[in-house]
Amino acid sequence: MRIGYTLMTEQAGPKDLVGYAAGAEKAGFDFEVMSDHYSPWLDEQGHSPYAWSVLGAVTQSTERVELMTFVTCPTMRYHPAVVAQKAATVQALSDGRFTLGLGAGENLNEHVVGRGWPPANVRHEMLAEAVQIIGGLFDGGYFNYKGDHFRVDSAKLWDLPEHRVPIAVAVSGSQSVTRFAPIADAMIAVEPDEALSREWDATKLGPPARKIAQLPVSWGEDRDAAVQRAHEQFRWFGGGWKVNAELPGPAGFAGATQFVKPEDVAAAIPCGPDVDQIVKQVGEFEAAGFTDLALIQIGGDQQEGFLRFAEDTLLPALRS
């Protein structure tokens, strides 16, 4: 299993994220993923710079690590033809280190363009069309498309990278696996669901595919402080994606999680200095068939300490 680091735009500004990217590469992480948000989940997180500008800078502050969006919604804030152009540019800047992670999005980020928020089945239809458009543009040449949700008129990517951009798609169940496994290169999910992994590989009808997940942790020498930080900034995580996709803003997430207790968060997220707890939860993803796992260190002011801990203790423990 490859271990990655999350550049979480909701909890750090653009310059800090570029610095953390370089630090994570130095610490020995295998890859880095970046969230693509217009808004943080909660006011306490306090940030949300434009991910694609930051990614451009990160391609120049790193040399080895793979980079990935985790994830971009290519249907409302961005037209899929524009996402294809951005992805091709980042791939060229990074010399082939970029994977385009896509998902059906959240109301939190997509409502800002004033188009409302469609139901889940429509969002998946839109995402499927977007993947077809992006793949068609990656093929090169002029591309036209007319679907139920999108049109593309004689578009062409003039700066195609030497290496085609792989596409990973976030899924949550059988319906999305059936739709996206045949047209994506890799799977993204947030829970260690072995059945989901097996179904993806069976539907894809080829060698076992890359399967990528994410795990939040709240490392810190003081466990009580780490639990409090996780509760303050990450209590939204417990709602599950079917809920998280629907709420319209930080106030909604604050209201929906007002009765979540610190001990509830600590039961789901490794908190404090105990490396064994993190190793145990990482092992659950490995046992479920995931090939890649990106860690999120909760707290924008905790990254440098976490990176030292990762280099000295965590990554050697995981790899042993």
Automatic annotation (TrEMBL):
**A single GO molecular function, which one?**
oxidoreductase activity, acting on paired donors, with incorporation or reduction of molecular oxygen
What domain of life is recorded for the organism? Answer: Bacteria
Query: What residues does the Luciferase-like domain cover?
Result: 1-291
- CDD domains according to UniProt: Tetrahydromethanopterin_reductase (cd01097)
Task: Identify the keywords attached in UniProt to this record, alphabetized.
Answer: Oxidoreductase
Which positions, given as ranges, span the membrane? Answer: none
Q: Which InterPro entries match?
A: F420-G6PD/mer, F420_G6P_DH-rel, Luciferase-like_dom, Luciferase-like_sf
Asked if the Swiss-Prot or TrEMBL record annotates the protein with the keyword Membrane, the reply is no
Name the Pfam families for this protein.
Answer: Bac_luciferase
- What PANTHER family would the database entry show? 5,10-METHYLENETETRAHYDROMETHANOPTERIN REDUCTASE, PTHR43244
UniProt protein name = Coenzyme F420-dependent N5,N10-methylene tetrahydromethanopterin reductase
Per the UniProt record, the source organism is Amycolatopsis decaplanina DSM 44594
